[in-house]
């Protein structure tokens, strides 16, 4: 890391440190914090960060800004205007900086390089977050449960668990999620997309984790062991369900009759008692059943010849 001798700010390259040093040598210096600027206009804008002055107000939502340019960019949220267009894929953006970052997807450019492991990134913020991997720092702490995070966004995402906030909504079934990645996975249940394919048996999966667990069927690996009966499982979710055999916990409760179950599948099957639903249909005689096991028994007894 390269450290500024005047303010002790650190940088990932000597070039960035050299560019930063121009701030200290500038004749347009802030009397509050000593930061320097290229011209008087930028200095005046900066001074508003100390005074709290925000003279530019949005006529739609009354949000205020230090700089008129920030107000213009903000106004596009309301108007939907996206004047910056990618010439490679026609994707459009509200901000020129967003287009600049996006263009690197096409060019493959990753200008922000880690000097410790040679990894490179499209955005400087990604490099800054990555540096915490090397330092072990987790500077972002949840004030409710004290859990710490390497990346500010991870803390923001975590806070939704406490707040119950689920801003990402499925347009097909109105189910909502706290994380955009979970919504993306959920959408595959509607589209039928299964992008993760087993190279041994060609079985495909909606989630990468499910493929990882499936591969243990081929390898025989069962890393999740029960500490009470030494039974082992290939999937931690199966171990968690198994532990309820020992604890007697039944967290899945029917809201109609208060019957409880150790697994969600048991509750789903039980609800059909109330609804009368029989989703399992015999292809030979069209008789229907509430449980798949009942259909299997029926086929063996009635249609086994």
Structure description:
It is a single chain. With 305 residues, the protein is an alpha+beta fold. Among the domains are: 2-84, Double Stranded RNA Binding Domain, CATH 3.30.160; 196-247, Double Stranded RNA Binding Domain (2-Layer Sandwich); 252-302, Classic Zinc Finger (Double Stranded RNA Binding Domain), CATH 3.30.160.60. Helices cover 43% and strands 14% of the residues. The protein has helices at residues 14-25, 40-51, 68-79, 96-107, 124-135, 152-163, 180-191, 208-219, 236-247, 264-275, 292-302; strands at 2-3, 10-11, 28-29, 36-37, 56-57, 64-65, 84-85, 92-93, 112-113, 120-121, 140-141, 148-149, 168-169, 176-177, 196-197, 204-205, 224-225, 232-233, 252-253, 260-261, 280-281, 288-289. The protein has a two-stranded antiparallel ribbon. A hairpin with a 6-residue loop joins β9 (112-113) and β10 (120-121). The longest helix has 12 residues, at 14-25. It is elongated and about 95 Å long. The relative contact order is 0.03.
């Amino acid at each position: 890391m390269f450290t500024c001798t005047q303010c002790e700010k650190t940088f990932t390259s000597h070039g960035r440190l050299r560019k930063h040093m121009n701030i200290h040598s500038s004749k347009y210096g802030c009397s509050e914090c000593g930061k320097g600027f290229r011209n008087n206009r930028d200095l005046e804008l900066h001074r508003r960060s100390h005074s709290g002055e925000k003279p530019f107000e949005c006529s739609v939502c009354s949000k205020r800004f230090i700089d008129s340019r920030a107000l213009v960019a903000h106004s596009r949220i309301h108007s939907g205007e996206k004047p910056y267009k990618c010439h490679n894929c026609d994707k459009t953006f509200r901000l020129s900086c967003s287009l600049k970052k996006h263009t690197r997807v096409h060019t493959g450019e990753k200008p922000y390089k880690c000097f410790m492991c040679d990894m490179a990134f499209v955005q400087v913020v990604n490099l800054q977050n990555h540096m915490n991997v090397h330092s072990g720092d987790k500077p972002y702490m949840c004030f409710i449960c004290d859990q710490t995070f390497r990346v500010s966004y991870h803390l923001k995402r975590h806070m939704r668990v406490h707040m119950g906030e689920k801003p990402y909504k499925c347009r097909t079934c109105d189910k909502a999620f706290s994380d955009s990645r979970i919504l993306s996975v959920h959408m595959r249940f509607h589209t039928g997309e299964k992008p993760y394919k087993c190279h041994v048996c060609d079985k495909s999966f909606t989630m990468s984790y499910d493929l990882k667990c499936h591969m243990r069927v081929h390898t025989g690996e069962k890393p999740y062991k029960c500490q009470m009966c030494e039974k082992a499982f290939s999937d931690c979710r199966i171990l968690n369900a198994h532990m309820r055999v020992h604890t007697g916990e039944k967290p899945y409760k029917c809201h109609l009759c208060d019957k409880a179950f150790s697994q969600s599948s048991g509750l789903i099957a039980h609800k059909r008692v109330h609804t009368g639903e029989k989703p399992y249909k015999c292809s030979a005689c069209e008789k229907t059943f509430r449980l798949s096991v009942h259909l299997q028994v029926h086929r063996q007894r009635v249609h086994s010849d």
